[in-house]
Amino acid sequence: MSVPGPTDxxxxxxxxxxxxxxxxxxxxxxxxxxxxxxxxxxxxxxVDSVQRLVVRGAPALGAVGAYGVAVAMLQAxxxxxxxxxxxxxxxxxxxxxxxxxxxxxxxxxxxPLVPAGVTAVLTEAHAIVGEDQAANRELSRxxxxxxxxxxxxxxxxxxxxxxxxxxxxxxxxxxxxIIRELHDRGQVEMVYADETRPLLQGARLTxxxxxxxxxxxxxxxxxxxxxxxxxxxxxxxxxxxDRIARNGDTANKIGSVGIALACHAxxxxxxxxxxxxxVDMATPDGSHIEIELRDGAEVTTYAGARVAPEGADGFxxxxxVTPARYISAVISExxxxxxxxxxxxxxxxxxxx
Length: 353
Description:
single chain, alpha/beta, Four Helix Bundle (Hemerythrin (Met), subunit A), Rossmann fold, seven-stranded mixed β-sheet
């Protein structure tokens, strides 16, 4: 009952695909060593893939949420679930990770179509993918224009944190999408990619994507980021977001707020890039964003080997919140908002002031 999904020839990697009634995910826990895919045909496999970070990145999770509803519906048909069981299983997908709004947004967008059948849900899920790819391209153009209008040095030196490219979206990227746009214009001298502890999404994933796209890249320890900025080696920092509150506070991978503070001290732009689906107008500010606390073993072990002594527990918040006052610009496909300026955050979702 699969509906042909959209294709984007500009996309280097497809992290999320639908094929033969199956949600197919590129296993990002194995990159860059191996490129393998996980086939999700039941709710357990969808939830497990989300929680183990087989798939991650806010826009990609939005697509997974939508496709996950179709997976649940197909499983319900096979196993003869009642409506109550189906609703519970859909909620399991919706709540698999709490901080990133896009997962719940994707589920919520297609859930009203459940009574119309799997084909209707899949058609809407494919629409989400197409919209995300178009949004990423548009926000990348807006972001590159904004940066080149405010940074004098050419070509620019960029710092980024975590992973925000093809792997974190359904195609092209958000923060890394802006970097790709700048690179296509011949305006990138170097990308400093924070390794992004504890799971090294920067070292494993961002550096891998940059290498594939021919973008000059240096991987640095997270602890080096502030020094690199304050030494004058960076012209702009660009990161993604997992949730943007109504006042412009943004939640992103742990370590982001330290970069913002360093940029503020150095007087260089700190830019947040995310599609409009990441804006949560129902959340007034960052203090209301739930921060996911992951297993401490991700901090105290690496590749299965313990690196901290027995008895030392790991503290592992997956995200932090950057206050709007430290953000130079938040960029979506709809607008560029400077949180301390005159543009309202609602412009990021196409609202008029």
